[in-house]
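Project standup — Tuesday

K.O.: blocked on the structure for the chain from last sprint. Re-posting the sequence here as requested.
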Amino acid sequence: MPNILIIDDDAHINDVVSKALQANGYTVTKAYSGTEALMLLAQSKPDLILLDLMLPGSSGEELLPQIRDIPVIVVSAKADVTDKVELLVGGAADYITKSFDMKELLARIMVQLRKNERSASKALLTYQEITLDTDKHTLSANGREQKLTRTEFAIMKLLIRDPEQVVAKLTILDRISLDTPDCTEDSLKSHIYNLRKKLKSLTGKEYISAVWGIGFMLTEKT
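H.V.: unblocked you, prediction finished:
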């Protein structure tokens, strides 16, 4: 059930929107100032934010650049096109002008949540029970997680995108060179060894097979 943070100092609007969202199956958190919103964001991450601009404490314009990886719909009385463009360029996902139709607001919320859901799914690459999070640079399996180094992540991303296919050593070195220019053919073996250890700690299997004289492959049969 998505959680939506409403940031609006108008108690009446905050309450009306909150009730409409709850009636449509959302959970709601409310903030009445920019300062209160920052405190709430430090404690938990909502799925979407409805942001008013005219706030006590930090204004909506000041708050927006501090919000990361959360879709923000600006809800404001400012109707000037320049204001809308600046906020959209500055990171807002959408902009709706007060007074708005509740059905339109609900539709815009649904659209942004769907976009965010698709974006989140693209960040996860999976093979068997292994999941590689391309945002967090972590491997996870069986409810546990391992942080990867920059080079380990680049190698794992390459292997998991083409599992059960041999990837030549020179291909690996060439493909990851932009991310990890310091990786050499000799050091590649060490990075593969460390990746195997992390995979084994998560799954009990090493998962990465060496194909003698050619390269490496991600496979359950090691």
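K.O.: great, moving the ticket to review. The radius of gyration is 23 Å. The first strand starts at residue 3 and ends at 7.
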